[in-house]
Each structure stands twice: as structure tokens, then as C-alpha cells.
Amino acid sequence: DQGRLWGGRFAGGPSEAMFALSKSTQFDWRLALHDIAGSRAHAKALRAAGLLDDEQAAAMDEGLAELARRVSAGEFVAADSDEDVHGALERGLKEVVGPELGGRLRAGRSRNDQIATLIRSYLREEIRLIAQDVDGVIDALAGQAERHVGVVMPGRTHLQSAQPILLSHHLLAHAWPLVRDIERLRDLDRRLALSPYGSAALAGTSLGLDPQLVARELGFDMSVPNSIDGTAARDLIAEAAYVLAQIGVDLSRLAEDVILWCTAEFGFATLDDAWSTGSSIMPQKKNPDVAELARGKAGRLIGNLAGLLATLKGLPLAYNRDLQEDKEPIFDGIDQLHVLLPAVAGMVGTLTFHPERMAQVAPRGFSLATDVADHLVRTRVPFAVAHEVAGETVRYCEERGITLQDLTAEDLPRISPHLDAGVLEVLTVEGSVAARDGRGGTAPVRVREQAAELRAAQRQLGAF
Ligand code: ARG
Question: Where is it mostly found (predicted)?
């Protein structure tokens, strides 16, 4: 029967081009072990419903275990004539237990509920691994933050000098979105924990099979409440694609900072040799390829999500073959992050920072102007006036080609009667940073607290 799961009502086989279009073993084979696990659970449901006797059930279970062994060892693989992973494995089962017993397994199930279950099992396994790899990037960021508390750098908005900040504060700002990504994966796992097995083609199973039994056997919390939804829904796959894309975007924003920091113009950081590449023509080059690939792959991950949503839009219930198109984008997203995340962790963890350079640049662009205004507010000047005076102070300096820190007591009355000598004391980068000591602020005491909070969040998320 060439491993085909249908044929009785057809006078002939599919045309070559039809078969080539339909075939999915080249990508769905990675679900083979999940399919066999589903089959073992299904065989137990058949046994419980009296559709397999004890002897048959035992032989079936042993046969499926042997098939799993052969698949793991690469001894059994999909053949060119196999349409999909399900057909290939039924062919394999028949090879192991014979066509009579092998032909009994498919009762009461459909490839529609099978595939909907397998993709969930697969994703539940993979997102745990992705979460661990994301945690590795968080570790790298937190480790660098902990090693550099006290190091100042220019903080930017609109990429323009804004206010001085701590390097650790900035690094931790890249870690928190990744913490939320792990939370997203954990939340998604709760929704993935319902098994569609037993939904059959769409209307549910008629042979007294217990979907809850199969769900429990496969480690799901329970079976789905609606068989149509169980076979037709792919929102959870799209949600997974979204979280993968969001991780990509979060890495990409981090990557862009690293790329800027490692330019000669910034000079804030140097990449480790092991995490950069050279140029075939320019001997001096040290390129941030890891960061650039992170930025590039984010686009690809967004494309996977957009493509999947476009596939789902307008599909009538229940199963449609279009749904087969969910696999490659989600598999690609998983594969890309498996190679990307460890590389980003390595790149971040081995960056060498240049504190002198960052300290030198931190006060540039009049980044202490807010501190002038805040000082005036502390002396009870209304903020609107303080803002004006601080602006005039910047203009005064700009016209004379000096920085705010160059101001002396003689300059102050020439700028504004509101300015007292106390302002000169707040005009340091260290003072500016230390002053922002509200919760979540960049003061060293708060950043130390924040690093501990991040570590606690990591522990609390742990393995899910
Ligand atoms: N390969 C299909 C998929 O990935 C599952 C098989 C359902 N095929 C069918 N003709 N009903 O969605």
C-alpha cells in the first residue's frame, strides 16, 4: 500500500505532482517520536474500550517501543513513497508487528487530531529548551551588570545624549524583556497543555475511546473541550511564533546597542575574538556578526509569524490542508533561536567594556541640564522656570564653547538670579546618577537592588 492511509475509494494513485505537493515527511519527520508516543497512548485507549485484547495491546505497545528505537537509531526512516509522518510510521509498525495488528491502531483517530496533538507536544518540549537558552542570555547580561556596578555611561533618547546612567542599569534594561519572554513561554505552555487527541477528524470519537486517558498518558493536563476547535485551531502555534519573534526582536535591540558600542566612534566595548569575525580584505576589521545575525534573524522570525497569520486568516472550520503550512515557519523559528541564543549569550558575556571612555562621554551634550533644573526645584523654584533657567545655562555654555562642568561661581549671576553656588555641586556625572534613587532608578543602590530582583525573577521562573 506504499504507506498511504487512504485509497479504497480511488481507482488510481495520485499523480506525481499531486504527491510531491502533498508530501510532508521532509519536515514533519521531526515529530516521529511524538507520533509514536501518541500512538502508544491511543493503543491504551483502544484497550480500555475493549478494541484490543490484553495480548494485542501488549504486542502493540512493544511494537511501538521497538519502532521508536528504530526511529531513534535511524534504522527506520521515511521512504520516498510515504506521504507524511503518520503514514510512514504505520508502515513501520506493520513491519514490526505485522499488517493485521498494525492495521488496528488507526481506529477512532484521524491525522487531524494526531497532528494537532503532536505539534503541541513538540512545542511544549521545545519552548522549555528555548526558555533555558533565553535564561542564558539573561545570565550573561546580569553577570556583566553585576561586574560593572558604578560604571557610568551616557544615557540616550532619540539616540541623542539625555542623562548619565549606569552601564549596569542599561544592561539590565535588556534583561527584563527576556524575563517577560520566558513568562510568555510559560503562559503559553498552560494553554498548550490541552490534548486534541480524540477529536478525530472534527466531530469527536465514536468508539468509546477516552480522550482524557490519552491526554494524561501524554503529560497534558486534560483533553480539549471542543473537537472542532481541537483540530482546527492554530492560534497557539501563532502565539508560539509571536513569542519567538518577540525574543528575536528583543535580541535585535540588544544587538543594535552592541554594534554601536563597538564602533570606533563610540568605543564603549570590544568584542571577544571568539565572538567576532574578520574581513577577507581589511586586516584591521573585527566585525559584530553575531549581533548582525541577531538583527537579521529577527526579520525572518517576524516573517514566520506574519506568514502563519496570513495562512490562518479566513480559513473556515474545521480542518483544512492549509494548516499543514504551520509547521515549517514554527520549526524554522525554533531552529533559528537554538543557534542564535547561545551565540548572543557568548557575545554578551565576553564583551570588554571601556569605563574611562564611557565616563568621558557621559557628560557630553549637556546631559547634566536636568540636574540644574532639579537643583532649582529643590530650592523651591517652579519647574517651568527651572527648565527655562537650565536651558539658558546650556545656551550660555554653548555660546562660550564650554561644558556645564566648566561653570564657575562668577558665571552664575550672569545667567540667572535663581542660580546659587549649590548648583555647581550637583554638576557631576556621579552626583547625577546617585540622585536618581527612586525605585527603578539608575542610582547605584537601586541598580544593585534591581540586579538582585532580576536574579530572584530568574529563580522564580526556573524550569517550568
Ligand atoms: N500533514 C497534515 C498537517 O500537517 C496532517 C494530515 C491531515 N491530512 C488530511 N488529509 N486530513 O496538517
Answer: cytoplasm
Element (H, E) at 390: helix 383-400
CATH fold group of domain 112-151+164-359: Fumarase C; Chain A, domain 2 (1.20.200)
d(CA 205, CA 150): 64
**CATH 1.20.200.10 in the chain, residues?**
112-151+164-359
User: At the topology level of CATH, where does 16-107 sit?
Assistant: Fumarase C; Chain B, domain 1 (1.10.275)
- What is the structure's pLDDT at 283? 83
C-beta 336 within 6 A of ligand 1: no
Closest atom of ligand 1 relative to the 323 alpha carbon = 12
Catalytically annotated residues: 158, 279
Give the side-chain half-sphere CA count within 13 A for 195: 25
Q: Give CATH superfamily name and number for 364-461.
A: Fumarase/aspartase (C-terminal domain) (1.10.40.30)
Measured distance CA(396)–CA(166) in Å, rounded: 28
Q: What is the DSSP letter of 108?
A: T
Q: What is the percent of the chain with per-residue pLDDT over 70, rounded to a whole number?
A: 99
Atom number, ligand 1, closest to the C-alpha of residue 327: 4
Cβ neighbourhood burial of 216 (10 Å; 0-12, 13-18, 19+): middle
Residue 49, SS3 per DSSP: coil
Q: Residue 41 in contact with residue 209, Cβ under 8 Å?
A: no
How many Å lie between the centroid of ligand 1 and the Cα of residue 117?
A: 12
CA distance 94 to 207: 22
Query: How far apart are the CA of 65 and the centre of ligand 1, in A?
Result: 24
Per-residue pLDDT reduced to its tens digit, 13-30: 889 999 999 999 999 999
The CATH 1.10.275.10 portion of the chain extends over 16-107
User: Is 112 near ligand 1, meaning CB less than 6 Å away?
Assistant: yes
**Cell, residue 52:** 484490543
The predicted model scores a pTM of: 0.95
C-alpha cell at 219: 503529560
Which of the listed residues 4, 84, 86 should we mutate to test ligand 1's pocket, taking the one with most ligand atoms within 8 A of CB?
84
Other CB atoms within a 10 A radius of the CB of residue 118 amount to 27
Residues 6 or more apart in contact with residue 430 via CB below 8 angstroms? 152
Distance from C-alpha of 37 to C-alpha of 114, rounded to nearest angstrom: 11
Task: Give CATH 1.10.40.30 domain extents, the chain.
Answer: 364-461
Name residue 53's amino acid: D
For 272, how many CA atoms within 13 A lie in the half-sphere containing its CB?
12
- Please choose from 27, 319, 322 the residue to mutate so as to test ligand 1's pocket, defined by most ligand atoms within 8 A of CB: 319
Chain segment 329-381, per-residue pLDDT in tens:
999 999 999 999 999 999 999 999 999 999 999 999 999 999 999 999 999 99
